Amino acid sequence: MKIDSELINEIRNKVDIVEIISSYLPLTTRGKNYFGVCPFHDDHSPSMSVSKEKQIYTCFSCGATGNVFNFIQDYEHITFVEAVKKCADMCGIDLKIKTSSDDKIIKKYKTIYDIYEISQKFYQNNINSSLGKKAKEYLYSRSLTDLEIKHFDIGLSLNENDMLVKLLKQKKFTDKDLLKSGLANANENDIYDVYRNRIMFPLHDLVGHVIGYNGRAYDDETTNRYVNSKETDLFKKRDFLYNYHRAKESARSKKQIIIMEGPMDVIRAYTIGIENVVATLGTSFSASQSNLIRRLSDNVILCFDGDAAGLKATKLAITELGKVGILPKIVLIPDNADPDEYIKNNGSEAFQNLLNKAIDIMEFKTILLKKETNLNSPEGVANYVKAMISEINKIDDDILKEVTINRLVDETKVSKDVIMSKLDNKKKELVITPKKKQTKKNKYEKSVQCLIYYMLYNEEVIKMYDRKITHIKDDNYRHLAFQISAFYKKHGYIKVADLLSEVDDVNTTKTIGSIVALELKDDYTKEEIDDYLNNIKEFNDLEKIDKYKSELAQANDINEKIQLANKLIAYKLRSEEND
């Protein structure tokens, strides 16, 4: 499917790259540009610059460059046309085309998606029927209303062991399909439902498709309170966060995300107006989940259960989030309670106060160490100080380190000088990535780069290039200069963001990124451009003359030597005439 270039540019002009990218990951202002952690390589400090003025992004580390379409295309792993369609939808332009990225995934796993869609309707029908009376009474007793039950698509699996299997078989799904979906198990004789007599919380992927369930027991007889779906092609617990598809918009607008353990915690938070919240479905926390969180905000609050398992989960999440450059705040819920219980028993204002008073990582570690230490004896205080010094040595953030040291001095009355003397003051071998040795650019290369830089922003420079330059030696620069010139001849103007929509290969896109990253001064003089053009022409002339001289030296036939000598003289004369 080809879209007219003028329509592509119209769509690009109607959306703002800063707004679009900031809906995928946090951006902070620095000067006239915005910076964020680059999602296209393993980036731990903001190295991607987004220009509102130029409507392009460039990573100074990996070289990723593009306009708003390129970003969406690479971030979501979709085609260019599909990225244009997404932007068109955002700005109210109907392209009247169908895209295929979602279709490809849905087609590949269509059977499983269909099974889950039917199962969800089945479970919801159950809870709203007379068979769901006891389950609904249980939810009402937990202070949930029909509004929350409907909003979160809560359903019910029945006590018979093959109700769902029977329904799905009637719909012509095979045993193999049902087993692959994770909703059925097999014994020697037959297959049967995985979930029986449980309240069913649907698990959705990032865009809202049901891909699994969290089944909760609501009687006193069942030992396993929660059962999560088995891992399937669509559901991987390490890559999943409950309620992510609903929470992302609120998290981005509030610039904060709250992480809890279970569905009931999230639903309870919703009942008091807190929507920027997700759950891990347990106490594990993975690198994939950290990266999902990083897409939403770097302002993170961990609000796990107050019991020992919750504390363990908090420690793990702190470690994983730290790997992607996030220092979360922590809420410690009193009396070993979980968020659901605490909100029910104490109300929204009390819970909001807990969120407002969320503590930093070192205060959290301090609290844990105090629990393990007898601070009423000198030996206990000494052990506590040693343990804290060990933790302080792990801190990379200078401000957090200083705050923690001062807090330790106030708590223990041990002098700051003593504490400082015990710290590991060896500067960690500057894990400063050594700057690549800047190879000194010769006059020719610098002239080519500067010329192309100004061609990207000025029509006059393109015209000067067209009049004077016949050849650029470097393939990437030559191809880019040709693309700029061709774009101008076709459209009558030049804009980097629009040019990027027509660039057809990765090398040229990266070359644009390297040129844009030069960030030369905006203004130029005609004399400067003339200098660049003359330097390039001079290099080309010298290279051509050297070529003739080399051929002349190697020629054996006298007639060939005369011919080459004449060519050399003629070329020198032409070159001098053109200067």
Task: Characterize the structure shown.
- The chain is of the alpha+beta class and 579 residues long.
- The protein has 5 domains: 5-105, Alpha-Beta Complex (DNA Primase, Chain A), CATH 3.90.580.10; 109-235, DNA primase DNAg catalytic core, N-terminal domain (Alpha-Beta Complex), CATH 3.90.980; 239-359, Dna Topoisomerase Vi A Subunit, Chain: A, domain 2, CATH 3.40.1360.10; 364-422, Pheromone ER-1; 443-578.
- 54% of the residues lie in helices and 10% in strands.
- Strand 1 and strand 2 form a beta hairpin.
- The model is unreliable at 426-439 (pLDDT under 50).
Gyration radius, in Å: 32 Å
Low-confidence stretches: 426-439
Strand percent estimate: 5-15%
The average pLDDT score comes to 86
Helix proportion range: 40-55%
How many discrete domains?
5
Number of E-type strands: 15
Strand order of the largest sheet: 1-2-3-4-5
N- and C-termini, Cα separation: 48 Å
Largest sheet: 5 strands, antiparallel
* SS-derived structural category: alpha+beta
Enumerate how many helices there are, as a single number.
26
Q: Tell me, what's the shape? A: globular
What are the main properties of this structure?
single chain; 579 residues; alpha+beta; DNA Primase, Chain A; DNA primase DNAg catalytic core, N-terminal domain; Dna Topoisomerase Vi A Subunit, Chain: A, domain 2; five-stranded antiparallel sheet; four-stranded antiparallel sheet; 10% strand
Compile the SSE list and pairings.
Elements: H1 5-14, H2 17-22, E1 28-30, E2 33-36, E3 48-51, E4 56-59, E5 65-66, H3 68-76, H4 80-90, H5 101-108, H6 110-127, H7 133-141, H8 146-151, E6 155-157, H9 163-170, H10 175-181, E7 184-186, E8 191-193, E9 198-204, E10 210-217, E11 226-228, H11 244-254, E12 257-260, H12 263-271, E13 277-279, H13 287-296, E14 300-302, H14 308-323, E15 329-330, H15 339-356, H16 361-372, H17 378-392, H18 398-412, H19 416-422, H20 443-455, H21 459-468, H22 475-491, H23 496-502, H24 506-516, H25 526-554, H26 558-578
Parallel strand pairs: 12-13, 12-14, 14-15
Antiparallel strand pairs: 1-2, 2-3, 3-4, 4-5, 6-9, 7-8, 9-10, 10-11
